[in-house]
Amino acid sequence: MNYRSCCLSIFLIFAYIGYIGSPCALGFGWQAYKRQFLSNDGRLIDFYQNKNSHSEGQGYGLLLALANNDKETFEKIWQWTKNNLQMRKGDKLFCWSWGKRSNGFWQVIDYNNASDGDILIAWALYLGWKKWRNPDYEQASKEIVKSIRQQLSLAQNGQILILPGYYGFANKDTVVLNPSYIILSAFQDFCKLDQSKFWNQVTASSITILKKMGFGAWSLPSDWIVWNPNNDQVQPYPKGPNFGYDAWRVFLYASWSKKHLFQNAFERLWNFFNRNGYLPEYVNLQKDTVSLKEGSAGVYAVLAAFAKTLGRYQEAADLSKMADKKMKHNTTDYFSASLYLLSRVRFDK
Which of 7, 29, 59, 200 sits 20 to 30 Å CA-CA off 183? Predict the structure, then answer.
């Protein structure tokens, strides 16, 4: 191997390990994302859901603006979010859905919140304060985190968990939870903003629940689960026992937190990919069957990020290559594009 080839090989190795280049150095990047999904006034548009916007998407936009040091866009997204979604009475949580109503007006569609959106927005504001030292971001973050603690926490059977929303998830004997709403890195930072003992307990309880979620032959979490606090058991949500659209995000959030979670599940997904040449859009955890439809670019990207945290750099490179390939052919899927870009950044530095 000559000197030039040797240098090129070293460059490529370090590129996929993640030591060089911007978060969006390869393929579809931040500027393209903004052109495709961000309105002039600061809302993230989901073209697959009637051009609506969601609190989750606003959180993703804030995190990506932060990762790309785009202070102007960060402020624009935050102002739209605050002015249009922070409309609930009595707390600082966000209405989860905004779009075109039956009367033709564009406004809030559902005033219930989605806790992943609240968590992502609060966390982004905290990180924005750390980066740019805008005291308004810190104050807003504190208020949101306090509302999450006061309005969404559930303490039962020695566990403290964050409900997916204010209304509709805690029943008489069971609690419905979404594994992909558990963002451990955010919880750990909330300890610095709010009651540290509480958020440490939430983190510990969340890890305990996550470790119970290896369902079926694949050892995967389902999109939604049912937790019985009386016996501390969990099972896939009966009406939708799939690992799919929602649950793919657990690999992204696990990679950020560096916790030893879902390694067996990764092995099964990687082995399937190795044998069949694709990652499935979903896995049915009751029947142990897989979708013949291939997962999105975001699916490959988040699993690549997780592989990297395991030190599986060749697997990470192979999965990233597939993510880049698929991203070239579909840049209209806001959710996939968000995961694709988020998988290339870290917020634990």
Answer: 29
